[in-house]
Amino acid sequence: MLKAVKYPEISYRKYCTDEYLGQERQENRRFLGLPLNTKYFFDHTQLCQFRSSLSFSQVINVLVYILYHFQQTGLMKGLVIHGVDSTEIANDNMLPLYTVEVGGKKIRIYNDLDCDCGPRRNKRDKSKFVIGYRLHTLTAIDPASGHSFPLVSLLGAANHHDSLFLKPLIELAQAMGIEMKLITADEAYNDKDGAILGETDVHLIAPVPSKSSLPVNVELENLAVTCDDFCEIPMLRMGLTEQGHEYKCNAVDGECPRSCCRPQLRIIPFDNGHFQRMPVEGDLAEQAISIRKNVERVFNLLKNREGLKEARVRSQRALIARSTFATIATLLIEMAGMRKKVKKDHSKQLDLFDKAA
Fold first, then answer.
1. pLDDT at 343 (0 to 100)
2. What is this structure's pTM?
3. In terms of CB atoms within 10 Å, which of 29, 35, 82, 274 comes out highest?
């Protein structure tokens, strides 16, 4: 933990030296629980073996303990919106050990058997593919201040689709005691079949994909819904049913000559576009969708400050332990208030200036 907070960018081999840890630094020895009256010390192999031997349940138990104390600080005492997003963690050795063709497809085997090659988010200075993992993180966002805090993460190979990890991530967070009502995520996560809402009771809102198609008889400009090709009067939206969005005829008596011979109701099935289970129109929905970008701040801290930019380990278990320690380090820094900006008192400077004058 001390390494994750103070020296995340270096290896354990370099960390276990006098330059960083030092046998004479009593504050470090107290933090690690080492006796002050002896010269007993450990080497980097003990730390590496400890991390790789941790089970997933052990790591989560430690995280729950930290989250409890983080909750007591009051940093999330107000309204909280949860966000889910993912980021790439590249392996530092991207050359495959062996390539074999199976069923007409090339299978590449890397020195880390758990990682794989998958598409990367659009970045100008990097290739379109990454060899490594994807870290899927649940984040708590304070809408008032815009601050975001990482809560829990799941790790998968880079070639696995993001939507596979949303429901397991929500269920894990609920098992840890995290209460969620609304989650904002990008278009890669969707709840078209209603499994997330039905099994977790959590609503999901996501932006409309650029290639999303509209149902028939729905105007693109204002999403006005009509009954059929011959109807010119927009229908009135009534709400949601188990099948989809319900609309009712909005024509007054005598306004539509076809009112007696056409259906008065229409149900548009749920999709991952304009007709999601959580309606995406309106100012509040736009704010919930736009605030999801605050999750990127969490990834910047985890990757650039806590040292998760590259996977310097050789197994998924060791990397999930490392990413959890990075999350704990981020929460500890927030609890300690080490990132808060100190406001300067300009009134004293004015008093000194007046006296000098």
1. 55
2. 0.79
3. 82
